What does this fold into?
Amino acid sequence: SQYHKMYRTVKPTSGRQIFQPLHTLRAAEKELLPGFHQFEWQPALKNVSTSCNVGIINGLSGWASSVDESPADTITRRFRYDVALVSALKDMEEDIMEGLRESGMEDSACTSGFSVMIKESCDGMGDVSEKHGGGPAVPEKVVRFSFTVMSVSVLADGEDREVTIFTEPKPNSELSCKPLCLMFVDESDHETLTAVLRPIVAERNAMKESRLILSIGGLPRFFRFRFRGTGYDEKMVREMEGLEASGSTYICTLCDSSRAEASQNMVLHSITRCHEENLDRYEIWRTNPFSESVDELRDRVKGVSAKPFLETQPTMDALHCDIGNA
It folds into this structure.
């Protein structure tokens, strides 16, 4: 009603129609939200429903009971990962077409061979408690998981090297960072975080094995996605890779050096960890095949004592920068 009042006053006084009628706004809004565009995966994604018209879904989809005694339907909201990626690509449709034209690729020749690099980020947003509200009892911390389309490249038929047709000009800006999931969870709560992010991890793994068919510029095109979890801070990397928290003797998210070793050796540090190895170590921690004491076991797995659940990309972390600077 507020909108219609403005509409009626501005139009007669200025004679200009600067407001759009409400229904056109609604239509424009629908196009911007995930769940509007038709697409297809080939082969179909495992463990993901086939309906494309999915809007905002309950992030605990599949979890029947409430987590931590909070009403389960308030804990988390998210978009389905593939639907959000489709929406992001459709937003960039003009950029992609322009990139094809600039690199002189004949539009109709390039329908397959597109690959998209996705940077994932996830961080706690601190205390969001209601100061004096009577809302549902939810945890008072929030975690946000989001992604950025870093680049789109295409390998034309018969060519042997990829041509990058789009690169995100401001990869670290919050404007290029698309939210995927918001959850009332404390980022230190490994169990709840795992429970909420597990469907996202499942969708991400399914998308690695498949390719997306989406109409861009009026032609169906084939996209493959590459995911890089480089937008996590050190605390979140430890969380996702199952390492002990930052007070641990094993200080680094990339190598196995202890505090004592790092203070002796400030120069020679190499990256020694990977996701697979952390998974293996967790299995050793869980099964204790050599029947060792807790201390011996901990020394063997170098502080990996929870199950890593999201593969992060080992890039230079804050700690190695500090060691290098020192």
The chain has a mean pLDDT of 83.
